[in-house]
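Morning!

This is the sequence you dropped in the shared folder:
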Amino acid sequence: MRTLKFLLRKEFKQIFRNKSLLPMIFVMPIMQLLILPLAADYEVKNISISIVDHDLSSTSRRLISKISASGYFVLNDFGQSYDLAFEEIEKDHADLILEIPAHFERNLIKEKKEQLFIAVNAINGTKASLGGAYLSDIIQNYNQEIRLNWSLGNDGLKHINISAQNWFNKYLNYRFFMVPGILAILVTMVGAYMSSLNVVKEKEIGTIEQINVTPIKKHHFILGKLIPFWIIGMFIFSIGLFGVARLVYGIIPQGSLLLLYGILALYLIAMLGFGLLLSTFSETQQQAMSLAFFFMMIFLLMSGLFTPIESMPTWARAVAKLNPVTYFIEVLRMIVLKGSEFRHVQSQLLAILGFCVTFNGLAIYNYKKTS
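The structure's back. Tokens below.
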């Protein structure tokens, strides 16, 4: 323990002397947690729409007013020429065209049916599909409204009152969903990325040979390298959870903090083992950074942070199950937002424990083999 104490003191001194490393550890994660949830919002708004109204009736005007008042659409152009509206799409000024045919109101009253035409700029597939879905939904609601007002079809349609309640995210705030996921990514970066660079730095400057010829045992050296970043990871998580998430975004953890920090402690051990494993394959910090960047991109994009895992193809879902970040993001969202208990997160905990044993076992084996 005395040897480990001296090693930890040396490591903390080295970390706090490194003027370039300190901002990467303490400043960048906080800035990212402040900025990324504001930008990473998949709710599509301000969809530019051109409306071609050949009818110019009170019914078509009410439909246009309903679309404009929805909050999702911005009226780019209004006229009676489809060709001019299509030029707006070609110039990338419009995302959608809604064409209202002539005699729209008359046909609704007499024929009890009419057809609208929607043209979608599908270059941006996400915006196109969501914009088209929003517009179709507004038109369907408007259709129901005029059927009730005019009693079209005389089919005995009655008013239906709907009572809805949103659980765990009352106001459907997308930031509540994103902040725990981004916090998990930041903790992963501190655990895996920084620890791998710190170990490789000893190789690069040649001090690891000096340490290997001293009476210091390898497990003391490994613990001395990893424990400081375990403590820093816990500190960064606490600042992010109670400083940024709570004070800035109003996210208050609903579940047990003891359970949350217990899983965090285990997850950091797994990520530190992963960082150590990367360092055994790297001789320079540049190599370590390249390896870490490669895996961090996989962790980021295939963790369910931005894209739901259920919507991924089969092979991608299989890769996501081999991603430790997937399970930690699930645990964070479940405990922080839903207040889940230990019995609800047992499967994720077992997966994180498996990663912990695997990464650290491979790292220690490879370290002994290559050192």
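Headline: The chain has two domains: 2-40+171-370, 47-154.

More detail when I'm at my desk.
O.
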